[in-house]
Amino acid sequence: DTDNTLRYSAPLYPEVFPPDNVINIGDSDGGQITGLYATKNSLVVLKTRGVYLIKGNPSDGFFSETLSRDTGCIAPKSMAEIPGMGLAFLGNDGVWLLEGALENTGTPTKLIHLSTPIPDEIEKINLSAAVASCASMYHRDKEYWLAVPYGDSQENNVLLVFHYEAASWSKRENFPIQCMVETRDHRGYIYFGSNDADYPGLYAYSRGTGDKGGVAFTPTYKSVSLDF
């Protein structure tokens, strides 16, 4: 209905939305709702400029708790949970981390500016196209991946990687990632859809090697004919 309205269904009836099951989130100055993320303690609601927590239960009712009216999320697909740290997402002024709201650990719920060490790289992000930014975890190398558009590019062309065990960042260029997901099996690959018209398709990323049984070889990329 509006940028501030969150509707929820009746208990045990996910297809039924009673008229009174409505929660107003923030105000119009905070922009639209850009993301929802369920945690053990609450439902995190992200707006363009604002972070809110929905708490309560069906018996006693639900209520909204304001965490921030300044920091928010500008890219819905940039959200990813970093193990032992919190929920990472892209805001207007960099990458933020919501700490303490994901589980009952006694850690105070707060926002941390995760990209403070790389201000020059953050300034290069094309904010007018940043809504298409996307993220994924790569648990095999303990990394948070964030694909963003740099310069005047309207498509994601740079990969910012946060190495969460070392608490450091790195940058990888020429990664035309339009969407990506990490597999849940033992391989732990990342699959991503390319936005490069010259190299369309679906790709798999994994740690490689330069030889097999002493025989050197070069990397080979296999794809399907789907343009993402």
Q: What this model shows, in words?
A:
The protein is built from one helix and 19 strands. The strands form six sheets. A four-stranded antiparallel beta sheet has the order 3-4-5-6, with no helix packed on it. It has a four-stranded antiparallel beta sheet with strand order 7-8-9-10. The chain has one helix at residues 119-123, and strands spanning 5-7, 22-24, 33-38, 43-47, 50-57, 61-68, 80-82, 86-91, 94-99, 110-113, 134-138, 143-148, 158-163, 168-173, 177-182, 190-194, 201-205, 211-212, 215-216. The two termini are 30 Å apart.
Q: How do the helices and strands line up, and which of them pair or pack?
A:
Blueprint: E1 5-7, E2 22-24, E3 33-38, E4 43-47, E5 50-57, E6 61-68, E7 80-82, E8 86-91, E9 94-99, E10 110-113, H1 119-123, E11 134-138, E12 143-148, E13 158-163, E14 168-173, E15 177-182, E16 190-194, E17 201-205, E18 211-212, E19 215-216
Antiparallel strand pairs: 1-2, 3-4, 4-5, 5-6, 7-8, 8-9, 9-10, 11-12, 12-13, 13-14, 15-16, 16-17, 18-19
